[in-house]
Amino acid sequence: MVTKLPEYGYKDIFYNSEATMLIISIDKPLYTIIDVNNAYLKATNSTRESLIGTSVFGAFPANPTDEESKNIERTIFSFDEAIRSKKPHTMSNYRYDIPIPGTNEFEERWWTTTNTPVLDDDGNVVYFIHSPINVTELYKLTQREQAGVEALKQQQQQLYSTFMQAPVGIAILKGAGFVVDLINPQISELYGQTATQMMGRPIFDCIPHVKGQGFEELLDGVRLTGVPVKGEGASVLLERNGELDTVYVNFVYQPFRETDGTISGVIVVANEVTETIIAKKKIEEAEERARLAVDAVGLGTFDLDLVTGEMITSSISANILGFDEPAPRNEYLSVFHPDDLELRKKAHKDAITSGKLLYEARVIRKDKSIHWLKVEGKVIYTDKGEAVRILGTLLDTTEHRKAIEEQRKLITLVDNSVDLMSILSMDGTNSYINQAGMAMLGFDDAAHVSRVPISELHDPAHFALVEQEVLPTVMAKGRWEGTMLVRHLQTGEIFPVYNNCIRIDDPISGIPIAVGAVMRDMRPELKAKQALADSEQLLRNITSAAPTTLWMSDASGAVTYVNQTWIDWTGRHYEQHLGTGWLHAILPEDRKKVAEKLSGNIAVHGLFEVEFRLNHVDGGVHWCVLTGQPQYNSGGKFAGYIGSCVDITEQKHIQQQKDDFIGIASHELKTPVTSIKAYTQVLEKMLLKKGEVKEAAMIARMDAQINRLTSLISDLLDVTKINSGKLQFNDREFDFVPMVQELIEDLQRTTEKHTLVENHVDIGIVFGDKERIGQVIANLITNAIKYSPQADKIIISTSLKDDEVRLCVQDFGIGIAEDKLNKVFEQFYRVSGDMQHTFPGLGLGLYISSEIIKREGGKIWVTSSVGKGSTFCFSIPLHGKAE
User: Fold this and answer.
1) DSSP letter at 326?
2) 70: Cβ–Cβ under 8 A, 6 or more apart, which residues?
């Protein structure tokens, strides 16, 4: 049995249903609302009273969205369709905003409504239930999802477009075989192929020439470890247009990860930089060439920061300024010559305005040498015009200035030469003749020189020699010299000249460009020859009457001439002196010494000088000094000697008196000087004890001068002993090298500037006077220190050869002129000229050293070059002087 629900029960269900419902009459077109449930009232912010009995379109008129959504038309259509079909009709997702109570605004609402017809027993529609569902949130959510899908599609499209249009090459390689999954045109073009050719294929099948270049290992490493790899300027061998080509690329390999984080491939980003790399290499090569060029010319560079004052320099700049390596700017400034500081300051100040720095100044290096340098630079400004940097160069112009000075000297020399000097152009006119030449040939000025052809400087008959012999010979052989006749342009006088012509060639092409000539006016020479002939006879008469003996010898040393004075001294006939007969007039004790001296000098063609005693015609013994000057014939061959002999007997007596005086004076001075020294030392100690340091220092300086005086007295005593033959020697065996080393060690303490460098060989035991030989060595080393004030080292070397011990002391000082080398071992010889006061002394040290070595049976000598230094050497017998 079915229990029938009472009518009010249906109403309760209707009113309390959560579904929103209206019961609407089918009275078209009003569609009157018959009833409404609570859910509908709540959903539409309505009241029952305002709805029941009211047309649905009156209760819910059109709102601001109807113009777009056409909801009234759609609703009427749904109502009609439900009534017509007698079936429910649904309107989905339509917008109908509801008013917000108490305001003029509407709340956005989206609905899905079903209109369900209610039929009577006859099947006719009596009314219908209008049941809207609020789908606003669902609709908006759906719209957002659709918008998200569309945005995602658009983003994917944009990403793909970006990928394909990226200015760099991009590819995605999948799997262990690195199959091309995606590739853009830029990278496929880099590989020399199309994207179609490469898609779906292993990358190394597409570009087989890249295999073995290390890229497989890099890709594998990224795929397996997930660590990205970056490369810059990598060279790749690729095939392009059928040819292999080396390409430079920058690349990045990134792992390609799936959504779950697993690595399934590698993203390749590559960009060709071949042009950049090649350009960079060209720039580097250009910079290297520029650097080599700068280094080749000795050009230094600098970068001065005007804001901080800091300066960066090249090593060459530092060297130019006298430093071994770059130094701070303040150290550079300290070496500028004081007289040039204001000039330098003004140049820098002017540079800020002009934009260019240019000046020349001097610097004083650590070795006190002065060098000229040229500074050029460019000022760098900010956008506001503020000077912030100076970039520039330094060039040592010392040699250039010297060259200009030498050129000036040469031009001065040429202009002041007494001989004609000229440059003959290839067109037959002189482009230059010096002052002496213009005066010799009668030119008015330089313009006159260039206008006159050389044919006018000769008589026609004499010019034929120039055309047919002189110029052809110069062109063919490079030079011609000989006598020719020239004509004076003003007076017409024809006179002889000796002309020396040379061909001047272009230094690059070697093509002759001019002829240089040096002409000597022979008129004075011819006149002098005649005067010489006249004087020869007079000279013969003079030599015969001269108070000094004159003599000549041939190349073998045989005497070929003596003058009358020698005959008068010896009382022997002229013929008895020829050959070697002249030696018989010499005391037998001196005869061998003189003969050996002469033969020794003949062997080296050296200057000849010897002292000997002569049996004089007056019955006494006279002292003489015989000198000889080597003579050469026109071919430069040694022809013998021309010399003189002077009687020095009186000088010998005077020398003996002087030696006696020096000996007495030295002995008399030695005792008081020794006492003075003792008092000085005591006084110095007393002053130091009292704390009077300044006065003690003055006494110490006086003590040093007393030491010097003591040394001079000792030298004088040694000289008197040498001259009298009383210099004592105590020969014994001693170890040579240790003695030398001990001396050097002591002398090193006397100089801070010089380093005494030793080069020894094992010599062993030597027989000789250890103290006297040490005296010689000490003298040579102290001289080397004294005469090399600008040097920093002295080299002392020993050697042993053929039982002879040799010691040499080499300095790098002022040197000795060649014409003075034979005088340095003379008694009282000193440096002459401006250096006489710079290097004081009596000139006895080398004389004493020479005599000591000679008496030990040895030899002492010197080799020297002015400005480069000297080397003094001596040798002595290993086992002592032979008896």
Assistant:
1) -
2) none
The label of the residue with tokens 């970039």 reads: 391
Helix (H) or strand (E) segment spanning residue 734: strand 732-735
Give CA–CA dist 774/756, Å, rounded: 16
For residue 512, the cross-strand partners are: 505
Do 274 and 250 touch, CB atoms closer than 8 A?
A: no
Q: Say how far apart CA 512 and CA 760 lie, in whole Å.
A: 57
Dihedral sign, Cα of residue 748, residue 751, residue 752, residue 758 = negative
- Sheet containing strand 370-381, edge to edge, reads 311-313, 299-305, 387-396, 370-381, 356-364
Grouped pLDDT means (10 residues each) for the chain, 883 residues = 58 83 88 89 84 84 64 84 89 79 79 88 88 83 78 71 73 87 82 83 85 86 89 82 82 87 88 83 73 68 88 88 89 90 91 91 90 90 88 87 82 81 86 88 88 86 85 90 90 90 88 89 84 68 71 88 86 88 87 85 83 87 88 88 86 69 54 62 73 72 61 57 61 90 87 90 89 86 89 92 92 88 74 48 72 86 90 89 62
For residues 161 and 846, what is the distance between their CA atoms, to the nearest angstrom? Answer: 100
Q: Residues 106, 70: contact at Cβ < 8 Å?
A: no
CB atoms within 10 A of CB 169: 21
| Number of residues that this document lists for the chain | 883
pTM, rounded to two decimals: 0.32
Distance of alpha carbon 530 from alpha carbon 534, whole angstroms: 6
The two tokens of residue 872 are: 């003094």
